[in-house]
Amino acid sequence: MNSGKSGRNDGWAVETTAVHAGEHVDPATRASSPNLVMSVTFAPTELTGFSARDEKDYEGFVYARVGSPTVRQLEEKLAALEGAEAALCYASGIGAVHALIAGRLSQGDHLLMADTNYVAAAELARDTLPRFGIETSFVDTSHAEEVAAAIRPNTRMLWLETPANPTMRLCDIALLSKLAHAKGVRDVVVDSTFASPIGTNPIALGADFVVHSLTKYIGGHGDAMGGAVIGRKRDLDALNLEASVHFGGVLSPFNAWLILRGAATLPLRMRAHEELALAVARHLEAHPAVKRVFYPGLASHPQHALAKQQMRNFSGMMTFQTHEPGVEAARRMVKELEVIHYAVLAWPSPEPGLLDFHR
Ligand code: PLP
């Protein structure tokens, strides 16, 4: 039963953490499962206001943009799943990406970003951040020496994504975190959406922040968007005042409640994803029309050794290339799909060399 413990996992098995962490017995109703609290305002026990300055010194709930009980329960569960001190939730994965970048970087700072990562994060960095005086450069993070060479005196943040969407390229979180910190980079961030907290815990490997699109594995049912930034309490308290109070892209309690339901089964679902993905990857690898399959759990993945070192679960995502190149072949293939369906085209014409990460 719920013990009323804090969000820390306290040596619990991950299955126990996924179900119980953050889920305190509600002192008012004694409800043991998460209550959906939709209230926007709360009745503070002390006089307080809506500004970030007012919120700083008050521990209870005041206004749902600053914090609310159902969202807080999810934040505690996510922090526990990542073995971190704290988490903050936003309305989408990209909401979390933006909150972290805009909340931590200032004019004149340099952001060093992996050259393969989720497209909207890359576009935010390339197209939007320059308007605010933040420069981004992109680097192949599967090569540590290239990362080291790309770090500048004003590099404040290194942005990693592993496995990367859509190529399934990995990077060595422990190695790059050590290297970046030694060169004066303040924040190492890992978008760990594809790995999920069941596969990898980047903070234990030396990263400062983890980002998740909760819309994917953690929510797990395709019916709720959400995002999270996970890290040290001191950093996230400061981020909350700026990114939540001033930017406002916070998660709805209803979505938090849906995602809490999903998160409880995350370890079981990830086990099933891995088992089935491996079977699909092996089937594709043996298929005469398929040229290459990129799945971290396959021995043929160019970074399989790193995958085994860094991932406890290889997840369900994979990429494959057919012998016949081009969009037409892709179009024909998706028309033949019977059970799963086509979602989006990752890029209209594949950039040459995108999948050549096994140099
Ligand atoms: N990060 C990764 C790796 C993703 O795959 C996605 C979405 O596909 C995002 C971030 C953005 O998340 P959302 O769609 O919840 O904004």
CATH superfamily of the largest domain: Type I PLP-dependent aspartate aminotransferase-like (Major domain)
Give the strand content: 5-15%
Number of helices: 13
The chain-level structural class is: alpha/beta
Number of domains: 2
What's the order of the H and E elements? HHHEHEHEHEHEHEEHHHEHEH
CATH class of the largest domain, anyone?
Alpha Beta
> Helix coverage percent of residues?
25-40%
CATH topology of the largest domain: Aspartate Aminotransferase, domain 2
Mean pLDDT across every amino acid position: 92
Could you give the distance between the termini?
A: 51 Å
Describe the structure.
By secondary structure, the chain is of the alpha/beta class. The chain has 2 domains: 14-263, 3-Layer(aba) Sandwich (Aspartate Aminotransferase, domain 2), CATH 3.40.640.10; 266-355, Aspartate Aminotransferase, domain 1 (Alpha-Beta Complex), CATH 3.90.1150. It is built from 13 helices and 9 strands. The chain has helices at 14-20, 52-55, 69-82, 93-104, 119-128, 144-150, 173-182, 196-199, 233-247, 253-263, 266-285, 304-310, 327-336; strands at residues 86-90, 110-114, 135-139, 155-161, 187-191, 209-213, 227-231, 290-294, 319-322. The strands form 2 sheets. Strands 1-7-6-5-4-2-3 form a 7-stranded mixed β-sheet, with helices on both faces. Strands 8-9 form a two-stranded antiparallel sheet. Helix 5 links the parallel strand 2 and strand 3. Helix 1 (14-20) packs antiparallel against helix 3 (69-82) and helix 4 packs across helix 9. The chain is globular and about 70 Å long. The termini are far apart. Pyridoxal-5'-phosphate binds at residues 92-94, 118, 161, 165, 191, 193-194, 213, 215, 225, 227.
